[in-house]
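Record type: monomer structure entry
Structure origin: computed from sequence
Chain ID: A
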Amino acid sequence: MTSQLGKVGVLYGGKSAERPVSLQSGQGVYEALRSKGVDAHLFDTGEQGLAQLEAQQFDRVFIALHGRYGEDGCMQGILEYLGIPYTGPSVMSSAIAMDKIMTKRILLEKGIPTPRYAVAYTQDDLYEAAETLGFPMIVKAPHEGSTLGLKKILTKSDIPEAFTLIKTYDSELLAEQFIVGRELTVAVLGKGEDARALPIIEIIAPDGNYDFNNKYIANDTRYECPANLSPELTAKIQQYCVQTYKAVGCEGWSRVDVMLDAKQQPWILEINTSPGMTSHSLVPMAAKATGMAYADLCVYLLEQASTKV
């Protein structure tokens, strides 16, 4: 019974560049939990302090924060200190997944296919990366999400503008081999050997550009769930995603982003440990394909809340 979940805080808002998305996610989760009889309360970590969080005496919390100070291990560490069970992965797993460069190092060590990359701190570093990776090349802010601080570079002349843009988000830049192909995403739920992948979603964005606008605002992006893939390829991609989830040490839930090239080779791009829960979000879409409604997904995730230390 949901009454056994106690007083629940839905942590949302926050201070990152993804605050607007988090406000939508949190509101959706809050309304869903309330509809199921959960004693849920919204708590904006960008407007309310840690003393106020402790004073609320929440029995558990649902983390609907995205980006820095919410998805990167900071809030998870605070909750561990306060002894409040929380949804999603641990401090360490959250911190690793939020750092796309560190994630890549782990993927490579585990033999999981991921695009070639280079780390850049200066504009000259990006020119050197282009010599190695070729064009087109993707440049990302490695500690942001929601496609913020991301630029596709077609020629050398694009590098100065991309460098200036992404430097506003991060001091360290990730240059990555551009994979031409189909864009997929896979939600994974559970912990350890019980971790399981949900149906694969294919994202078909206008002009192949799945940017912030096409993610959260426009209605032109199409989604196919389950994606039109052979059973064998579906199983292969899902296996890579579960391996990624386990390699980073995730539990509760996460979402893995994948590119599938023309040779049907999947490439793992990154893993998101606090995925969006807006009306455009993908984990609820994948859950729905298995017969799990949005509100039931929220309750399931909240039931898995725990401290990890």
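Annotation 1: The domain at 96-113+180-303 is CATH 3.30.470.20 (D-amino Acid Aminotransferase; Chain A, domain 1).
Annotation 2: The radius of gyration is 19 Å.
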